[in-house]
Amino acid sequence: METLILPQIPSLVDLAGVEQDRRAGLWAHSATTFFPGLSISDVPPDAPVGQMQSIPMGGGSLWSIRSAPVLVSYSPAGGAEDPTASISLLLQADGAMFVGQAHRACHLGPGDMCLVDERFPFYLQGKECSQIVFLRMPRRAVLGRHPYLEHCTASPLDVDDAGAQLLRDTLIRTAKAAPDLSEEQRGSVLAAMVHLLGAALAPRGLQRDEVHWRVRAALAFIETHLGDADLSAEQVANAQGVSRRRLDQVLRRSLGRSVTAQIWARRLEQAASDLTDPRYQNQAVSQIAFANGFEDAAHFSRAFKGRFGSTPRDWRVGGAH
Q1: Residue-level pLDDT at 206
Q2: DSSP code at position 104
Q3: For residue 1, what pLDDT is reported?
Q4: What pLDDT, on the 0 to 100 scale, is given for residue 321?
Q5: pTM for this one?
Q6: Per-residue DSSP letter, 88
Q7: In what side-by-side order are the strands of the sheet with 97-101?
Q8: CATH class of 13-199
Q9: 25, 44, 209, 289: least surrounded by Cβ within 10 Å?
Q10: Domain locations in the chain?
Q11: CA distances from 242 to 230, 235, 262, 314 (A)
């Protein structure tokens, strides 16, 4: 893999110009400042390399980090119920690293990718000087579209799969282009990357039974037709050539909800996201409701308050609660 240091933006930290006896302390302090809940140990006293770069991406951020081999441990600073937690798509650009979370662990070499969930503890163990590039995405947005990914962290994505290759190539291209994009463009790219996670097959070793692929197919169909007010559970089932009853069984087994419940949950989640998205700040609440498949503004307002405990207008003013 080629070097992917983000171009045209200053580094947040660069140990190249720091006295050797100060490098380990500065590296550990910087990492824990940028990532609350993080702790670093086993930092080489003279830390031969160390660079951090970051650029905002809508409601997330894109990071490039070059580091000497260290042990990184993370515990959620906001607790396990932190609503602002992120899920990161991590790409090993060069070098090697072990990643562990939720009783799973994997080894990443150049070109490998995995997910980590900031709502739960994880660790990263570098074995050599290496570089990682990772995209932090709002956890709720990721799991709203791909709820099965909650159980796929710290497992390498199948990079032999064409969908995973597309995801990796897009992340690499994003790392190169992000500094030249406007704020609005970066927000759009983040939203696209969240959707594109669905293109990658499940991590290697995960059982790909009927439940798994039918759930993925159903969720993808719902996402594609979310703004269609006529979208129904029958349409989702017909697209797969199965009965609605069978598809309801599959989704309840995997997600704990029926097809219809998933449709309405996604509509509300997407509307909540759109209401606080700067790209849609000039759109009326009713426009956002209609764009997400609601036909009646009053019904949308009641359903929204029932789900989030706030009216859509108050949510927009106060942001996500």
Answers
A1: 52
A2: E
A3: 57
A4: 47
A5: 0.80
A6: E
A7: 38-41, 71-74, 122-126, 97-101, 104-108
A8: mainly beta
A9: 209
A10: 13-199, 210-318
A11: 19, 10, 17, 41
Q: Which residues of 174-209 are buried (b: 16+ CB within 10 A; e: fewer)?
A: bbeebeeeeeeebbbbbbebbbbbbebbbbeeeeee
> Hey, what are 18's tokens?
């720091």
Structure tokens at 20: 């050797």
Q: Using CA atoms of 209, 215, 221, 222 in order, give the dihedral in degrees to the nearest 10.
A: 180
Query: What φ, ψ does residue 283 adopt, rounded to 5°?
Result: -90, 140
Residue 277 per-residue DSSP state: -
| Residue partners of 259: CB distance under 8 A and separation at least 6 | 218, 222, 233, 236, 237, 244, 247, 248, 251
Class of domain 210-318: mainly alpha
The residue count for the chain: 321
Tell me which residue has tokens 């197919």. 217
Spell out, as residue ranges, where the chain has pLDDT lower than 70: 1-5, 7, 78-83, 201-211, 319-321
Largest CA distance in the chain: 67
**pLDDT at position 210, please?**
46
